[in-house]
Amino acid sequence: MRPSKRAPDELRAVSLERAVARYAEGSCLVSFGNTRVLCTATLEERGPPWLRGSGKGWVTAEYAMLPRATHERTRREVNSGKPSGRTQEIQRLIGRSLRAVTNLPALGERQITIDCDVIQADGGTRTASITGAWVALHDCLAWMRSRSIISVDPLKDHVAAVSCGIYKGQPVLDLDYAEDSAAETDANFVLTGKGGIVEVQGTAEGEPFSEAQFIELLGLAKAGIAQLVELQRKVIA
User: Binding site membership for phosphate: which residues?
Assistant: First the structure.
């Protein structure tokens, strides 16, 4: 039995709330159970210097954990002088995931920065961030089209993410912290709405997992992400 009493293939309660940040071009408050992340999208009228003159835009991301997002206060990384390796890994993952479904030349020489700030953490903060960031990016692009900044929709597809793992020998979907901290295998899957694989991160915390177990985790992830994409579609409709 899972600590949350969920079925092995059951997501936590997921919600996506749009337009929660008054001044951002796009925003979404995403909740996966008790994990909550505020995602905001900011348009900058110039791209990164290394893309200057290319006619191509860029989508990037920053990720941060608020000090009391966890049981004990976490020191702000700005006070340590640089983001941790974990933070850099997650924000690069979010950026890669969004760029995989964005027609960058259609942006022109502009940059959209997605800020993902974890308000409360209970496992799956990176997957929640990606799922909510897509909504914030979508709304930013809609804002740009409504003002004739761009003439076409640069989004090629949806993208969402979910965690899977092996907990007490059982493959399960969408791990919360109680499961994540004790799982024998922990994996994160990023997939597009059409089922394309953007990224897979999988780690055996104890015994190595088999190919058959990996295929089972992938099947769980596909089913879970299909539900997340459907929720994204309903929210933006």
Answer: 86, 124-126
Domain with 28 in it: what CATH number? 3.30.230.70
pLDDT band for position 207 (50/70/90)?
Answer: confident
Distance CA 58, CA 211 (A): 36
| Most distant CA pair in the chain, distance | 57
Residue 3 domain-assigned? no
The pTM for the full model equals: 0.96
Query: Is residue 6 in some structural domain?
Result: no
At 118-156, the pLDDT tens digits run 999 999 999 999 999 999 999 999 999 999 999 999 999
What does each C-alpha distance from 191 to 89, 94, 98, 163 come to in angstroms? 18, 12, 11, 11
Number of structural domains (the chain) is 1
Residue 99, classified by CB atoms within 10 Å of its CB into exposed (0-12), middle (13-18) or buried (19+), is middle
| 59: nearest Cα among 161, 159, 162 | 159
Residues forming the annotated binding site? 86, 124-126
Per the structure, the complete domain to which residue 44 belongs is given by: 14-236
